[in-house]
């Protein structure tokens, strides 16, 4: 601090990275799995029908509408999601109830058969799926959503500072980044850390900044509150910032009035955008005179910001004031779409996962680098370094322990009894229990041995998942490869690859611990 | 700060961290509000200007944090933050409806 | 197919850029590169990176194509660095 720019930034980078590294590792790893959320959802619900050629949207929407009219005629809002993209493995009908006396609202979600419109949810095991895993990366778990968001927001700011200060340290950013010197201890960790950071720097900056923009007025509320002290004006300003001519208001009118059939509206929207282009339909206040219907186009390009088609629910008249995006609104939509990668086809999705894993590995190597530097600087006769021991423990428990926990989540999905009470919650408990056990192992065992053992354990936990899947379900590799169900096949093969990766790490750790025990000084650390 | 006793060094570090995290946050908020108000006066929609400025406030906050940690001392960092924040607050107050201008 | 072409162009581009630097050039040739060769390698490198934009946006359009370019560029740069690292250990053996 206080001397050259690169020294002060190196200090900041080192300490911000250390303080937030473990949390950021968690956020990046679970967030990367979020790019596979829908595929994991399918893997964890092997009872779901295999993707087929779907009936036309007008037919599907009629089925969902019939179900919602039957189950939720007085709901506050209806949501219909039409299958046909990776996000939606089945026809989904959901609704939000009106607040009860205590002001509580319930959200119900049903998967429907695309043939009969009957719910198939009961036949499907209860699971948190990929969505629960993905939601942890921004809302964490075991705490109120707002608390989780605040903590991950602080971590994202720390990440931004670490990325920018890291870039400043690396003056010769382009000269150095082809350099990777394996097998040289601290030097190799630094090279690897730099390589992972620099090659995917555009991704890291985009994902971090957009993560903050996702909840920008939660994280940076003071300017908004200062300029718009009145809450109503504040809400309007938030809407007007991103949308010109926000929704033409439909006067509140709670008198009962039947909702027009949705299928003809879907046909109109498809005439405009093409068959199969409608992804999502939302109905506000169905069964009331002021009902509103909105039809949303599927996202196929992050830079695209197509306003929904809106209709009055009682008359079917179009609401003409289309909400046109403003320039900053367009930017915000684009960067948030980039964050989520919903538009990404197989190749882009593969690259997204690669970049996410690069970010995760960048954080992991950074954490290890901190300990390697500190260890290298220690005098041989120095007293035991408690800080170093703590960081070592947290590193192992997080970098290998979290993957063990995630593998346990998948094992729980296959092994917990189907009708078990609170099954989905227990899947998550088992994730955190297994992760906690990894910390205990990291504390209890000598460092080099603990790395080796936990890596072998992770290798087995991940590598055997496809085998468990084959014993336990009929959606295994033999089936998915035969019928060309590439999403499920890729997941099984990916789990195998993760297992092989940890086996490789375990072997490396074994080599290293032999080298270390040859040096009596290091063996004490 | 390299030769100072450990306690003073720790205190100075805590002061600097507070300046970066809290002071930087307030300053970034003030810059954001001032930009939105200024652009609003120049004929841009204030709601749009605020959205754009708030999106930009995060890299700005990061830059302020980095600057505070680069400052020669915690006291200098605090002085710069206070001067910048006070002038921006005055500027924003002048532009706010119900302010002086 | 277009993505593969883009990846090959990017890999070649990063390889040329790496070789325009003395410390990497020495792994293939004796001595440092002459100034003219250095310039030629650097020019070729940037030209190849730019050329990769064409196949990147060919199938996906400009906006998605840019994302593809960045994603493939990360992969290609990492591949170039790893090959250079392995190359050295190969020569030493």
| Main β-sheet, spatial strand arrangement of chain A | 3-2-1-5-6-7
Distance between the termini of chain A: 29 Å
User: By helix and strand content of chain B, what is the structural category?
Assistant: mainly alpha
Quote the average pLDDT of chain B: 92
Q: Which radius of gyration of chain A do the C-alpha atoms yield?
A: 26 Å
How large is the share of residues in beta strands of chain B?
Answer: under 5%
Overall geometry of chain A comes to globular
**Portion of residues within helices of chain B:** over 70%
The chain-level mean pLDDT of chain A equals: 90
Detail the poorly predicted runs of chain A. 519-525
Q: How would you classify the helix and strand content of chain A by structural class? A: alpha+beta
Termini separation of chain B comes to: 45 Å
Tell me the quaternary state.
heterotrimer
For the record, the count of structural domains of chain A works out to 3
Number of helices of chain A: 22
- Largest Cβ-defined interface: A-B, 37 and 34 residues
User: Helix and strand string of chain A, N-terminal first?
Assistant: HHHEEEHHHHHHHHEHEEEEHHHHHHHHHH
Structure description:
The complex is a heterotrimer of chains A (about 525), B (about 100) and C (about 90). With about 525 residues, chain A is of the alpha+beta class. Chain A folds into three domains: about 1-45 and about 125-220 and about 345-375, no CATH class; about 50-125 and about 245-320, no CATH class; about 380-525, no CATH class. Chain A contains 22 helices and eight strands. In chain A, a hairpin with a 7-residue loop joins strand 5 and strand 6. In chain A, helix 1 (about 5-35) packs antiparallel against helix 4 (about 130-140) and helix 2 (about 35-45) packs across helix 4 (about 130-140). Chain A starts with a helix and ends with a helix. With about 100 residues, chain B is an all-alpha fold. Chain B is built from three helices and no strands. In chain B, helix 1 (about 5-40) packs antiparallel against helix 2. Chain C has about 90 residues and is mainly α. In chain C, helix 1 (about 1-20) crosses helix 5 (about 60-90) and helix 4 (about 55-60) crosses helix 5. At the A-B interface, helix 1, helix 5, helix 8, helix 9 and helix 10 of A face helix 1 and helix 2 of B.
